[in-house]
Amino acid sequence: MDATLNPLILTLQMDAASAAAFTQLRRRHFPPARNWLDGHITLFHALPSQAFDEILRDVTQLAAQTRAFSIRVERVRFLGAGVAFDLASPTALALRRTLAERWGPMLCRQDMQWRGPLHVTIQNKVRPEIARALHDELTRDFEPRDVSATGLELWRYLGGPWQAVGTWRFEKGVDCPCLFALITYVAAVFVVPGTTG
User: Fold this and answer.
1) Angle at 101 between CA 90 and CA 53, to 5 degrees
2) CA gap 47, 184 in Å, rounded
3) What confidence tens digit (pLDDT) does each residue in 116-160 have?
4) Are 155 and 36 in contact (CB under 8 A)?
5) Which of 68, 76, 100, 154 has the highest count of CB atoms within 10 angstroms of its CB?
6) 67 near 161, Cβ under 8 Å?
7) Is the pTM here over 0.70, yes or no?
8) Closest CA to 102 of 156, 60, 165
């Protein structure tokens, strides 16, 4: 099958340190046989590859008009079979709404009916008791914090793994004062093998 016919996925790029912290959690808690991805914030789940040129044009244009902005990591959410961090950002929602209005006729039902919240999934497809235990553990010491949104990323879905298509960076212009709090939190909750005596 021609991979260029596969759906496209649009994500919001995070600053590198925050993305690495979420990816560390995901690799530790997502079932390895089902985890092909790093930590990510999905904006659109399945865009038609037939509209590639239009999507590329709109993503390029919007990224060029957008300054980097902060996203609040608001809470830890129990998914039933997993755990996610819920995110809050009026800017991110406005950005998604702008694209949804442009792409309305081409959106799949999931993207058309999406109501939020934006989130980063770190565990899924596990037994409820395992997910509940992780939720309780992460909630215990959780404090809201900020990460930086730095661009848009387009991917091609390959039946599990994603293939990177391109990244469009926002203009610089925001600092994330709570970034190191996120890194410290991850390091405190999960000790990396080989770092203790």
Assistant:
1) 110
2) 36
3) 999 999 999 999 999 999 999 999 999 999 999 999 999 999 999
4) no
5) 154
6) no
7) yes
8) 60
